[in-house]
Amino acid sequence: MSKRQSSTFRPNDMDGDTVIGANENEESSGGCAMILTILCYIIVVFTVPLSLCVCIKVVQEYERAVIFRLGRLVSGGAKGPGIFFVLPCIEQYTKCDLRTISFDIPPQEVLTRDSVTVSVDAVVYYKISNPTVSVANVADAAHSTQLLAQTTLRNVLGTKNLTEILAERDIISQDMQNTLDEATDRWGIKVERVEIKDVRLPLQLQRAMAAEAEAAREARAKVIAAEGEQKASKALKEAADIMADSPAALQLRYLQTLNSISAEKNSTIIFPLPMDLLTHFVK
């Protein structure tokens, strides 16, 4: 029993930290642990079937159970899904939900690189990738991840300009995801996605940006109108040159104008004059 417990998983060993006096503690408690374990097995055998109601546990497909025996992690990793056995008095277990969990980051007041204060909130999606590490290495994995997400949001947005925050949300979300995933890997947590929900600007800045956008639209409208007038004048000049070279075209235009006037204004009296007479006066 003592040899088996000497190879028990320890989160400090996984992280590269040394455990001072771990071997001595295992040797000193090995005999006591073996005695207590034997006594528990004897109690369970003599109290069957009542003991089965206490010892047999069930975890769902999306759950895992991390078992501690006399304060140490039981070898073999997390148990489940299905039925597993827990010795009374000397073993305790903790359930971990492996489904994807989401939480909202409260609105954070962030000072951007160009000295603009904005309020930004986001949502984070994560799940537990290693139940044993998430239980042994951090006291409250969910709460720790939330606090780290708030700090990461401020740090990432503090290095961006206002224009970058408004236009590059996907890049900012990816940077936050990479930073969070790297930090929470030691906690057995995998950050799957980070999304920026809303960026709220101060009221004065909103008015200034609206005025700037309106001025830009007005300037663009004037440029478009000027270009249209220029094209129309060129077309009129070309039409006038064609009519000057072709008297028949001028006569057709004259008749078309008379038709339009008679159709729209019936009360108007028109005295048509021959084009040859007008040409004589023009000369």
UniProtKB/TrEMBL annotation:
TM segment ranges: 33-59
InterPro entries associated with the record: Band-7_stomatin-like, Band_7, Band_7/SPFH_dom_sf, Band_7/stomatin-like_CS, Stomatin_HflK_fam
Database matches in Gene3D superfamilies: 6.10.250.2090, Band 7 domain
Species annotation: Patella caerulea (Rayed Mediterranean limpet)
Source species, domain of life: Eukaryota
Protein name: Band 7 domain-containing protein
Region (Disordered): 1-21
Keywords in alphabetical order: Membrane, Transmembrane, Transmembrane helix
Domain Band: 54-213
Places the protein is found: Membrane
SUPFAM superfamilies from the UniProt entry: Band 7/SPFH domain
Protein family per UniProt: Belongs to the band 7/mec-2 family.
GO CC annotation: plasma membrane
Ranges annotated as biased composition (Polar residues): 1-10
UniProt KW Transmembrane helix keyword: yes
First-listed, main subcellular location of the protein, grouped into a coarse class: membrane
